[in-house]
Amino acid sequence: MAALARENICLTKPQCEDAERMYYEKLSGAKAAPESLSAQIERARQHIKNSLECVDGLAQQVGGEDMALASKLSALELENRQLKKLTDDLKKMVMGLEGRVASLEGGKKAAPAAAAAKEEDDDDVDLFGSEDEEEDEEKARITAERLKAYAEKKSKKPALIAKTSVLFDVKPWDDETDMNEMLKAVKTIEKDGLTWGANKLVPVGYGINKLQIMCVVEDEKVSLEELSEQIEAFEDYVQSVDIAAMNKI
Asked: The pTM is what?
């Protein structure tokens, strides 16, 4: 209604227009025709209609301003709620930081107390020996004696010697090779850790026999490859040497 009061409204404009028209007709000498009752009623209705339209326009204008004001108020309320939430979050964060600072300060205060307690415990230690230390020394001496006795006993026990049983196939050049001389030549090979065993002649074909001879060797002392080369060195009798079988003992 305040906006309506500020507007310049002319509610008597139709009457003014009629009076102006009659004035100019009088000046011109024209005689105004008497107005009928129906014309007067129609003119009054038109005046009322014009007045109502003017009032409706003002009401719509006032309503638009009220809606704009209500929208601004809603926006302010929303902004106020957001600011309040942000303030609450900041308050919680500050309280959490204060709690952490307080706990850290408490830990720093507890550290000197723990150090002081440790120093007191160190003061209680007997630096000049005690009965507990004497007992520990006695236990250490007994343990050392037992370990020494075990080591001596273990050193006296004979070590296990790894041995291998080997069967050689010694092949001659032909059927005219003297197999007895071949056997004698092979057995002339003597080594520490080498022991010759049983032997026999095995037919190969076309009247040719091969010599199978067994031996036992100590793995750390005798090389089978070197022994095979020594047997092959008897070129007058031996064509080739192969290991037919071998077993660990």
From this structure: 0.39
